[in-house]
Amino acid sequence: MKRSITTFLLLFAICVSNAQMRKWTLQECVEYAVENNLTIEQFELDLENAIIDKSDALGNLLPNLNGSTSISSNTGFSINPTNNLPTNQTALNVNMGLSSNVTLFDGLRNLHQINRAKINAIANQYRLDDLKDDIRLSVANAYLQVLSSKEQLKTFKAQYAVTEQDLNRTKELVESGVLPRGDLLEIEATAATQQQQIVNGEGMVLISRVNLAQLLQITDYENFDIAEEEFLIPPSDILDNSAKVIFDKALSFRNDIKFSESNVDLAEEDLKIAKGAYYPTLSAFFQYGTRYSDVTQIPGANGPYTPNFTDQLWIFDGISYGAQLNVPIFNGWSTKNNVKRSQISLERAKLQLEQTKLDLETNIQQAYVDVSTFEKAYEAAEKTLEARRLAYEYAKERYDVGLMNAFDFSQAQARVDNAQADVIRTKYDYIFRLKILEFYFGLPISLN
């Protein structure tokens, strides 16, 4: 029994450990964010409401059907419902009926309501998809920030390891009298500065991880981490296309454009619905009714008698049907004003569509310039790092033979450190801008 419990606890510990050690890939982060974002869930509820509205619009074309029944008892003076004569009897009366109404013509407003409901459902789907696009970009950016922070931390630690070697070597040279003690103090100050960089780097890794976890709405920050991968600059021929070509393609599939276009269609349907109030409304009705009263008296072969409940329902039933035409003549300019409001809303929707297109074109132009700019910045940072490293190697040779003091040597190393940090920063800035431009071109977000 003890062995079984021990085995169970061991397996449980392994499972918990594996759960805690899970490393999230970019694709997993994006999918999880899209599936669990609260705003997305709210938009999905709006989409469900839009689908229900479409069902309502379709139902308005169908005739309604209502049943009614009433039971009453009168004591004292009343009117007998079967012969319309006054009576002082206590009477039990039952009335039942069915009624149905259908709109035959209302200026085509019902049809426009159906079209509007269909367009509204489509518009809500575009709005939901546009939000998902924004979340994908936000998650990708946050993910790259974690990668950048981790890579910088690795660089800080590697730099400190080199400084430790220099520190040990300098101690030996100082103890042997080759170098003054001031050089040792300078190297120790450099080591202390790099230790502080490591502490700050660890803090940046933690902050970037927390920011990404919050986007995913994960609260277990301590056990949340991304996969340990080093991403190189992904190959891309996106710049083979001009910004105009990318913009023209984006117009054909971008959800924000489709959403704005749907809003124009909605406004057009609203205008048609408002204009429909100028037309007459033609409706048809059908009614069936019957009744029962315990004071009913009808002639018979042996004198008046009271028919039973079932017989009275057949005797006193009746049908009425017909049509009704309502012609609007004057309603205080409300229809006219509603049409004007709908026209204004239509113009506003058209302006918003043009603004959305303009914003998209501006964003693509900026993204296009950013890709070129950050690519050049990354290439320049790499060249600078290579030059700084060569200068550092030369300075190290001079320092080792006593031809350079510790301060100048530490400055050479600091310049290498700064150059490495610039390479990491510009690398991930370039990757993210590249992915943004590819995203506008319709390519999925991926770091492969």
TrEMBL record:
Keyword hit for Membrane: yes
Signal sequence, start to end: 1-19
Keywords attached to this entry: Cell outer membrane, Coiled coil, Membrane, Signal, Transmembrane, Transmembrane beta strand, Transport
Q: What is its main location?
A: membrane
What Gene3D superfamilies is this protein classified in? Outer membrane efflux proteins (OEP) (1.20.1600.10)
Annotated localization: Cell outer membrane
Q: What is the protein name given in its UniProt record?
A: TolC family protein
Species name for this entry?
Flagellimonas marina
Please spell out the taxonomic lineage of the organism that makes this protein: Bacteria, Pseudomonadati, Bacteroidota, Flavobacteriia, Flavobacteriales
